[in-house]
Amino acid sequence: MELKTLATPRVPVRYYEGGTGQPLVFLHGAGGLDLDLGFLDSLATKFHVYAPLVPGYGDSEECAELRDMLDFTLHTWDVVDRLGVKDPVLVGFSMGGMIASEMAAIAPNDISRLALIAPAGLWLDDHPVADFFSMMPYELPKYLFHDAVAGAKAFQAAGDMSDPKFLQAFLVQNARQLGAAGKILFPIPERGLSSRLYRIKARTLVIWGESDKLIPPVYAKAFQRAIPRADVVMIPEAGHVVPFEKPAEVISAIARLQ
Amino acid sequence: MRFTWFNLMPWPYLPADFREKNHSVWVDINSRLFDPAKSHEVYNTYLDLLEYAGKLGFDGIGVNEHHQNAYGLMPSPNLIAASLARRTDDVALVVLGASIALYNPPLRVAEEFAMLDCISGGRLVAGFPVGTSMDTNYCYGTIPGLTREKYNEAHDLIKRAWAEKDPFAFNGRYTKLRYVNPWPRPIQQPHPPIHIPGGGSVETFDFCIDNTYSYSYLSFGGYIRGKALMQGYWDRVAERKAPDTSPYRAGFAQTICVAETDAEAERLYKQHVSYFYNRCLHVYPGFADAPGYRTIKTIQKGILSQYAPLTMFQELPWKELVENGSVIAGSPETVRQRMEDLIKSLHVGNIFCLMQIGDMPADKCMYSTRLFAEKVLPKLRNMFPEYDNDQRFWCKPLPKRAVAGNLPAESQVESLAGVDA
Fold first, then answer.
1. Chain B: nearest CA to A183, how far in angstroms?
2. What are the tens digits of pLDDT across the range A141-156?
3. Nearest CB partner across the interface for B296, out of A133, A176, A183
4. Domain covering B2-414 in this structure, CATH number
5. CA atoms within 13 A of residue A152's CA, in its CB half-sphere
6. Are residues A205 and A257 in contact, defined by beta-carbon separation less than 8 angstroms?
């Protein structure tokens, strides 16, 4: 995958591109792309993958003008437009799934294939989505991973929190990334999507890790009920970060949309 | 110098094992620990203590706003200030403050502050905090990355509402009002003095400097730890070429306990100080700083939240708290020396004296407060004689003010009856 920059009406956008085949746009989750680069590499063996970063993620420029759900949705359509791809397979993970759902609902004739991987965007009072904004880094693995021990190791490999320099860099990155994500996810990751999902015309796959503790798998049914043509794929022994924990299973599910 | 006696209004009945058994004193504090019947006594005692301090020579009495917080029982500081307005007559009412971005519409603050200023005869010092992340983001749901923008808009609305004489339309992003025209208007014109409590955000420094507001650092970490932050502020005052470096451009909150001797201070107050630092400040660090609440510039300056590091200490002992300046405690002479050190080293003219500490009972609080007022405060009055005439950051009450309970005599009322007959 190659990291590139794209001009959009509001702000230059950084994106990864690689592979050949049908165009596929992947929208990342609130954690960014760090854990998913391996997954994208594999995905690029089957598709021509474009993975834009939400402004503020990674080394990309922040965009104060993106304030609400409509801003995020239209901005991401601007990105797709500038990439020059028509009717890509649209794949969104977690926060990216929320944005992808909105894009497909607002422009139902422009997206015919949609894959939502553990998407955010709905809220069930009996099954609250965990508040990851208030979590300390050491608390995250048990919500994100099926195998929390392995997950904690993957986290630690990124750097040592007791090193003040790394801690400061981490806090800056966190403020930039989750600060941007918070515009659509804080304090409750719901911005009215449930009243718009009926508009989606795309063939939709809702992919979920069976042991997701961040957004419980019960949400898969809620998405399926609200989207006219949706199938659910449950993946065993996977937590919230399904693309990281079970990349092959996720890719073969997405391949069904080809 | 301006000394404000401040009451955070902590809940005094947190159990000894609170820290071990509870997630946080703030945001998700266990509501079963609150006893409404006991709070009746607690609130009235705390109000009495504020009124008591108001009679002893303090320049102001101070209240602030917290939500879902066991060390701050004032979700509405204006309610407390309103009751104080009626029961005091010459002390400033320092509301530090009302979190303007949390009111919908924020015009409510313009109205309530104007009411307080009118009822008190111009004794209001108005605080406009952005609010902590616990209060603003986690309790009141404001999106962290939009908090500052919302705050700035609320500020502009309130300032305009007080200044403009005719109704105007306000087309904000967060508030849209067709007819802005508050009644009443504040006595103090163009507006009551404004203090901004802050926690080290560079943007807040600049905001105060550019608007001639006083910057208040409400820390529990004490003046020694607070020095770096206040130096950052004064550096900024110089960088932005403010016309002066008046110490009244800044305020600092300090925990203070006074007794006859240093040993007596330890004997009388140690357990209450321990209650405050070890139970009340048990804030879950994940609530201290929602991502996006602080700007990148501020994080890069390395001034991080006071709550996160404090909660990592285990059982802070008295000696350490006193030595590191978290608490200024001891005989009147010890306290005077350390206060002088604080005032000079931070260059601050407004002192917020935190003297009701943790579960301190009223008698001890009165003892400490009286000793401070009589034996310490008079000796600290003259720290900045060259700025004696700087009235920009303090209230300007009406010279002649109404007195509560001053209705005509019943006999006069009765004499109205039957006059037409």
1. 6
2. 999 999 999 998 888 8
3. A176
4. 3.20.20.30
5. 7
6. yes
